[in-house]
Design brief:
Elements lengths: L4 E2 L4 E2 L4 E2 L4 E2 L4 E2 L4 E2 L4 E2 L4 E2 L4 E2 L4 E2 L4 E2 L3 E3 L4 E2 L4 E2 L18 E3 L4 E2 L4 E2 L4 E2 L4 E2 L4 E2 L7 E4 L4 E6 L5 E2 L5 E4 L6 E4 L6 E3 L3
Parallel strand pairs: 1-4, 2-5, 3-6, 4-7, 5-8, 6-9, 7-10, 8-11, 9-12, 10-13, 12-15, 13-16, 14-17, 15-18, 16-19, 17-20, 19-21
Antiparallel strand pairs: 21-22, 22-23, 24-25, 25-26
Length: 194
């Protein structure tokens, strides 16, 4: 049985849940009530708040704060210094804890370095948010998002490879061979069974 690795400089409060095989590196702080799954990696200086949920096999790179209300589903990748928020209109002199909004990063999605995800949005399964992008609205599954505010510029395979999809129709990933169809009316990308 594998246990979690907690670096000697990390602080893990009593009542935090950390799954087997997870590695918590230098200067991290995981608070009481945080839930972290199996086989995750928390890079240097990661903060996980009470009520934050991190699934299995998630990688959170250096200098990321995962606040209450943020849910990172299984196999999410969060790049260095990415930012999550949990209140839309914060004020230092006003408590807004009753206004926390859930932010959900769905299974297999990637959040690039220095990207910002505003609270209350859902980033769809296997979507990719490019470095420095600012996500202010929900992101479709497999969408590739860049810019400020983030806008869709293409599609990505579940393996992370950019897909050549220009109009409604089928496409195949050059890296893994997965096949997809872009539905004309809905504009959604759907993986086809092998």
């Amino acid at each position: 049985m594998t246990t979690a690795f907690i670096h000697e400089t990390a602080v893990v409060d009593d009542g935090a849940e950390i799954g087997e095989g997870t590695r918590v590196w230098h200067f991290c702080h995981v608070q009481t009530g945080a839930r972290i799954g199996r086989d995750c990696v928390l890079g240097q200086n990661v903060y996980v708040a009470p009520g934050a949920v991190i699934g299995d096999r998630v990688h959170v790179q250096n200098n990321v704060s995962v606040y209450q209300g943020v849910v990172l589903e299984d196999e999410v990748f969060v790049g260095p210094s990415a930012v999550f928020t949990n209140v839309r209109f914060p004020r230092a002199g006003e408590s807004r804890k009753d206004e926390y909004e859930e932010t959900r990063i769905a299974r297999g999605a990637t959040i690039g370095a220095n990207a910002t995800v505003v609270c209350g949005v859902v980033v769809g399964r296997h979507a990719t948010v490019g470095a420095g992008a600012v996500v202010t609205a929900d992101v479709a599954e497999h969408a590739l998002m860049v810019g400020v505010p983030a806008r869709p510029v293409g599609w990505v395979c579940r393996c992370g490879e950019r897909l050549a999809v220009e109009r409604a129709g089928e496409t195949t990933c050059d890296r893994c061979g997965d096949r997809y169809v872009l539905a004309g009316a809905s504009g959604a990308l759907r993986r086809l069974a092998r």
